[in-house]
Design goal:
Layout: E1 14-22, E2 30-38, E3 53-55, H1 58-61, E4 69-76, E5 79-85, H2 95-100, H3 105-111, E6 120-127, E7 136-139, H4 145-158, H5 161-175, H6 181-193, H7 211-222, E8 236-241, H8 242-255, E9 261-267, H9 272-281, E10 287-290, E11 311-314, E12 339-342, E13 363-366, H10 372-382, E14 388-391, E15 393-396, E16 399-402, H11 411-417, E17 421-423, H12 429-436, H13 442-462
Parallel strand pairs: 8-9, 9-10, 10-11, 11-12, 12-13, 13-14, 14-17
Antiparallel strand pairs: 1-2, 1-6, 2-3, 4-5, 5-6, 6-7, 15-16
Length: about 475
């Protein structure tokens, strides 16, 4: 089922726009072409859902994408800026923003204040309807916007905007239960930045009994759509928090052998032992996704693990061997994998070791790669069985290129990358869930596109 817009009467839209980016590495503010898209029901993020358009930041933030926040700044009705940022302590401090606010990385750490982490990207928009600030038309930014946005970030830092937002987050998520993943994240960030954690604002405590009903009314007024609940079946389990790990332990004692599809995502406070317990119990898993912020899983040191594994989505760099050597595919489970989504957010995966162990691999998805002149020869030489390649982002020199499905129809891109490489704007976790439940996933799209191209080549050859 294709993605559905989060707002009624909206349409799915994916446009390439010039966005203002403050890179985390301190290289200076710049304009970058990024995907400006419709906010959909799959965007399980209350910050995104305050507007009907956003930047696709999946490739930028990787595992920390769920911690994305969006801060609007409206200069005029014809210039509303959506500042996409992250505060996850697992991402690097943004050195460009540090320079803008007149600090250094050491000063920020010494202050023990919240700070922007990872890249900060700003989408320029304007209102489609003058009286509604959430129905937007996306625009191209230009260098004239740099100074304005620098002033905005500087003012936000001086006024403690990040602390205020996180304080409000903590209160709202408390009203939905302290087991919420986002609430745990708020506590983690607070603990890392100050002691004791901040408390909910006193002036909103009286509203605790009204938040849920008010939020429902707010959704109805905006024409906002909600997705139906997605029950967990005995064959498919998605774990997104430490509490879910604990809760599923007794349940899995009787059903673990029937689990075929398993996803472990989100924040787990580094409880590798609990996750290893789940993986050991579910030893019949055929389709596994691991994107939790954990390291040194025993799964990759147990030669008996993953014997039935066929599909794997993983950021392999997280599981670097203790010796400090490069990540590798030496574990026996890799010899049976047919579908691999390598979700690493850098293009140095060709330096990984043990590629020849992927002897049955036919489908390869890459969240990031180098240019075609280096990527294609590597795949052809080291992975001769691969027939289908999906690509989200590739680097060309010092610049990055975010892919978009429209480029699949451009002849010069086909000439560079060949018939078997298909471009995708993102690979969302909900896509994995659909595939696990038999409703189709991005691989169906990739297979159809490759087969269409190959048929066109054959038809062209037969007509000559």
């Amino acid at each position: 089922m294709p993605p559905q817009p989060a707002f009624i009467n909206d349409k799915i839209e994916n446009l390439v726009r010039k966005c203002v980016v403050f890179p985390a590495d301190g290289s200076g503010v710049r304009l970058v072409h990024m995907i400006a898209r419709t906010v959909t029901l799959e965007d399980d993020n209350s910050w995104l859902r305050c507007h009907d358009r956003c930047i696709d930041m999946v490739s930028t933030y990787g595992d920390e994408y769920s911690k994305l926040r969006v801060a609007p700044h409206e200069q005029t009705p014809n210039a509303r800026y959506l500042i996409h940022y992250n505060m996850s302590p697992n991402l690097p401090l943004n050195l460009t923003v540090a320079g803008v606010v007149g600090s250094s990385a050491s000063d920020v750490k010494a202050d023990k204040r919240l700070f922007w982490r990872g890249d900060v990207a700003v989408l320029k928009t304007r209102r489609k309807i003058p009286t509604l600030d959430f129905v937007l038309e996306t625009l191209n930014a230009d260098e004239d916007d740099f100074g304005l946005l620098e002033d905005v970030l500087r003012k936000q830092y001086q006024e403690g905007m990040l602390e205020k937002n996180l304080q409000w987050d903590e209160y709202i998520w408390k009203t939905h239960g302290e087991g919420a993943e986002e609430y745990n994240y708020a506590k983690i960030v607070n603990t890392k930045c100050r002691e004791p954690p901040i408390q909910p604002p006193s002036h909103v405590n009286s509203f605790s009994d009204k938040v849920s009903s008010a939020y429902s009314t707010f959704q109805a007024l905006l024409g906002y759509q909600t997705a139906s609940s997605d029950p967990v079946s005995e064959e498919t389990i998605c774990l997104q928090s430490s509490q879910e790990l604990t809760r599923f332990h007794p349940v899995l004692k009787n059903t673990a052998q029937r689990v075929k599809n398993l996803a472990i995502i989100g924040m787990f406070n580094r409880k590798e032992s609990d996750i290893d317990t789940i993986l050991a119990m579910c030893n019949g898993v055929e389709n596994l996704l691991v994107s939790a912020a954990v390291y040194n899983l025993g799964f990759f040191t147990n030669p008996q693990a993953g014997q039935k594994l066929r599909r794997l989505t993983i950021q392999l760099r997280k599981f670097r061997p203790p010796s400090g050597s490069q990540p590798n595919f030496y574990h026996p489970c890799f010899s049976n994998i047919t579908h691999l989504h390598l979700d690493d957010d850098d293009d140095d995966w060709p330096t990984y070791q043990g590629w020849d162990n992927l002897s049955k691999l036919t489908h390869l998805a890459l969240s990031c790669s180098g240019p075609p002149e280096s990527t294609l020869p590597f795949i052809q030489q080291n992975l001769p069985t691969v027939q289908y390649v999906a690509l989200v982002h590739y680097r060309n020199g010092e610049d990055g290129r975010y892919c978009h499905p429209t480029v699949n129809n451009e002849p010069h891109m086909r000439a560079k990358w060949g018939a078997r490489v298909v471009f995708l704007s993102s690979i969302h976790f909900n896509d994995w869930k659909r595939g696990a439940r038999g409703d189709g996933d991005f691989w169906d799209i990739v297979e159809r596109e490759v087969e269409r191209r190959l048929r066109a080549v054959l038809d062209g050859a037969s007509s000559t």
